[in-house]
Amino acid sequence: MRLTAAHVARVHRDVADAGPPPGIQQMDDADYAALVAELMAGKPPGPLHVFAYGSLLWKPAVEFGPGIPAVVPGWHRSFCLKLVRYRGTADRPGLMMALDRGGSCRGLVFPVRDVEPEAELHTLLRRETSNKPPTNMPRWVTALTPDGPVRAIAFTVNRKGWAYQSGLSPQETARVLATACGHWGSGADYLFNTVDHLARLGIRDRNLWHLQALVADEIEREHGPCG
Length: 227
Known about the structure:
It is a single chain. By secondary structure, this protein is of the alpha+beta class. It has a single domain (5-221), classed as Roll (Hypothetical upf0131 protein ytfp), CATH 3.10.490.10. Helices cover 33% and strands 27% of the residues. It has helices at residues 5-11, 29-41, 117-128, 170-179, 187-200, 206-223; strands spanning 49-52, 68-83, 94-111, 136-145, 148-157, 181-182, 185-186. The strands form three sheets. The protein has a three-stranded antiparallel β-sheet. Strands 4-5 form a two-stranded antiparallel sheet. Helix 2 (29-41) packs across helix 3 and helix 5 (187-200) crosses helix 6. The longest helix is centred in the C-terminal third of the chain and has 18 residues, at 206-223.
C-alpha cells in the first residue's frame, strides 16, 4: 500500500466546524422518523442488517454483530459526494464515497443488535445523511453472502441530490482527497482507513487501490517524500 499514516499526518490540520452549509435545508426529527419508518416497513423477518463498504467498516456508528463477507451487485464504490463540511470546507470541498449505479461491491453485512434496532437506525441515519433531500440515500439492497442472499440497508447516491459529484477523473479525485480536510479529518485519512481495512479483509478494490497511490503521489508532490 503506497498511502501511509505518514502521508495522512502531512495533510491533517485542525478545522473548526462551520456548521450546516447556508441555503441547504437540513433534515429534522420528523424527517428522520419518516425515513426510519419507511425503511423498517421494508424490513424482512429477522435481524436488521447493514451493508458496510467504507467508513462503517472502521468507524461504525452503531453496535454491530459479527460481519459476513458479501457482494452487492448493481452498485460500486464511488467518490461521488461533495463535502463542504465534515471532511471538507466551503473553500476547499472534499469527497466521500457512496454506492453509485453499476458494477458490484464487496464488503461486509452486519446485523444490528437486536435491542432497539429502530433507535440504532436513527443513530446511523443521523451520521450518514443530514441534508434534505438526502444525497447519501439509505435503501434496501440484496447482498450475496456464502449463506445466501441477505436484504440489507446500504447508503447509495441520489443523483438528483445537490451534493452529487460526477465526472471527476482519478487524478482529479486524488487532488481533492490529498488536500481537503474538515473537522472530522482529511480525505486522505478517510481513504487510508478504508483501503487499509479492506486489505485486512482480503478485499482489493482495484479503483481504490489505484487511487490511494495517486493520493500518496499528490501529497509527496506538495510536501516532499514521506519516510
